[in-house]
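HOLO CASE FILE
Compound: flavin-adenine dinucleotide
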Amino acid sequence: MTEPHLPIGVAIIGGGPAGLSAGLQLVRANRRIAIIDSNRPRHSATLHSHGFLTRDGASPLELRRLGREEFEAYPTATFAQAIVREVAPLSEAEALATGFPDGLGFRVRGSGVRGAADVEFLARRVLITAGLVEELPPFPMVRAFYGTSLHSCVECDGFEKTDKPLVLIGETSDLFARALLISRFSSDLIVFTNGADTVRPDQEEQLARIGIRVERRPIDDIVGERAEMTGVRMADGEVIPRVGGFVRPRWHAPVEFLGDQPIERDEWGLVVVDGRGETSVRGIYATGDIVPPGPQQLVIAAGGGARVAAKLNMDMIRGALGVGQVDD
Ligand SMILES: Cc1cc2nc3c(=O)[nH]c(=O)nc-3n(C[C@H](O)[C@H](O)[C@H](O)COP(=O)(O)OP(=O)(O)OC[C@H]3O[C@@H](n4cnc5c(N)ncnc54)[C@H](O)[C@@H]3O)c2cc1C
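Model generated. Tokens follow.
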């Protein structure tokens, strides 16, 4: 059953650090805000998150719980546990009839998760903070070690890997840059391309100069004992001993709910926004992991949420008063 809701200022899709931070700023600007969250954070594989000022080492779930509690303490806040299925633009007449003064608005529909009701909101603006969906390299055991021995964020988990025999596994053209970043923590590093030709010979030479080897043979699987990774088994059967490291997943921005609205993406599939955080669809904003350039970290996502909230607030003030662009 769908619960009816009052028209709101902003529907925020995603209740991670980006969405919660934006939500907090906007309810504090006296806006009526709904955060709609399907409760599937990308970092659920990990027990400790690092680098968030005052919360270094905290559980990511605890961070979300605290953020939600702070947001929901405001009377104009709604937090819905649902997965957004559709974001459809209102016609100008519908938007004006709803009380949206600049004739711009959206209908946002979602299906309840974990027993929660389905939701429908009419919102002046939409903010997408849905994070990324990641596709790990296709080895049967990779998930078993992800978040413990293997990680994707070098800035987040590099420190704990200092001086260990490490891997970097991936098939994308940014492996060279990532290998340089990891070399801050350990020079005992092997870059596995799984047969892909994504590290150029000149880059391989530069890596060799600092003791990093590139292994181009295809991989069969990751091997280990219990939760501890012990090596990488190549397709030819050789096992190369390694205790952990980094994988480079492929990501995609989960914005299927936009249907055929023409949202621009970059070469990696992330959502392109302007300096104000607005996407190529007027009235739809995005921030957090889903937009470049990163780095993909909690503190960056939370900062992005606060920044885009300020821009959205001003956009709605301008829209209500009918004034053009102002310096803010
Ligand atoms: C294994 C791992 C470990 C990490 N460790 C660290 C660390 O130690 N330190 C650090 O700073 N960063 C870390 N990160 C990165 C950090 O988790 C992200 O940068 C941060 O969570 C991004 O925040 P976000 O709000 O953009 O997206 P997310 O936190 O991913 O939140 C997005 C939310 O949107 C929801 N959503 C998606 N689609 C919909 C939909 N259609 N409808 C409703 N809701 C939807 C999802 O369920 C999710 O709850 C780690 C990431 C991973 C994968």
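CASE NOTES: The mean pLDDT is 94. The two ends are 42 Å apart (CA to CA).
CLOSED: yes
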